[in-house]
Amino acid sequence: MGNAPKRVVIISDTHCGHQTGLTPPEWQAVPTDIDTQLNQKLSKYRAESWERYKKDVESLRDQRIDCLIANGDLIDGRAERAGGLETLHLDRNTQAKMAVRCIEVWDPKRVFILRGTDYHTGHHEQWEDVIRDILQYKGIETKIGDHDWIDVNGFVFDCKHHIGGSQVPHGRFTAAAREELWNVLWNEAGLAPRGDMIVRSHVHYHVGGWRCSGKRKIWFLTTPGLQGWTRYGGKRCSGTVDWGFLAFDIDAAGEIARWHDRRHVIQSNIAQVHKV
Q1: Which of 130, 157, 191, 210 could form a disulfide with 150 if both were Cys (CB 3.0 to 4.6 A apart)?
Q2: Which segments of the chain are extended strands (E)?
Q3: Residue 135 burial (10 A CB sphere; 0-12, 13-18, 19+)
Q4: Which strand ranges, in their side-by-side order, compose the sheet holding 155-160?
């Protein structure tokens, strides 16, 4: 058991409180017969996405989760720009409790929270602090930061929420690769640890790659998100989104023993054609 790989789970962009955010059952609104077709579809989506998430959690619980990284935008916030039109639960205390539930189902040994977008998590407050405090009250060791380096058996995850997005497919790779180069330069200046995997989120799509640096293989990627499509995205964005999360088993030698890619298509989130 002493030489067993350590398991790291990385989730992000749960956007708890949004109509398509990750929503534990106790906060899921049940549609009525008079609800619009859209509300009924959203209710179905929330139930389906949580069941998918819970099944994936259970599939990785064959060993204790050594480290869970929550890489930003855990709550959706006040949604001022949208007038709250896409909000399921506006109270950010409620949203924080939902986020805690999304984390604690893992029963992790320790949690690292990365701060997300101010628009979602507070321009003047720090709602991630509330999530951390609740988790620590429940006995889960939790650290919070803006940009953290997490050493797992000598394998270093360089984690931060923000990264630039792209509206062209090939541009998505460029931003992730650029973050890896900046890590090289910060490390060269003696200002930051060298990362083995550069992890960014925020853009809700999973892309990345690796390159060789001498004998080392350096990974860089953006994570999938755990929020479904939004009205904002439907009106303004063109690119595809990825729903899910990632997990890694890091062996005693500091190598990736197994990569768990948990990305899914949530059936009730698929666009439908209108027939005449």
Answers
A1: 157
A2: 6-11, 67-70, 110-114, 141-145, 147-152, 155-160, 197-200, 207-213, 216-222, 243-250, 256-264
A3: buried
A4: 147-152, 155-160, 197-200, 216-222, 207-213
- Tens digits of residue pLDDT in 82-111: 777 889 999 999 999 999 999 999 999 999
Best CA proximity match to 251, nearest among 154, 158, 149, 156: 154
CB-count burial class (<10 Å; 0-12, 13-18, 19+) for 237: middle
Residue 38: partners with Cβ closer than 8 Å, 6 or more residues away: none
Asked whether the beta carbons of 220 and 198 are under 8 A apart, the reply is: yes
Q: What letter represents residue 95's amino acid?
A: Q
Tell me which residue of 203, 230, 233, 236 sits closest to 117, measured CA to CA: 203
Euclidean distance between CA atoms 102 and 44, whole angstroms: 18
Q: Supply the pLDDT for residue 83.
A: 73
**Residue written as token pair 């460029």:** 174
> Structure pTM?
0.94
- In this structure, the strands spanning 141-145 and 110-114 are parallel
* Backbone torsions φ then ψ of 210, nearest 5 degrees: -150, 165
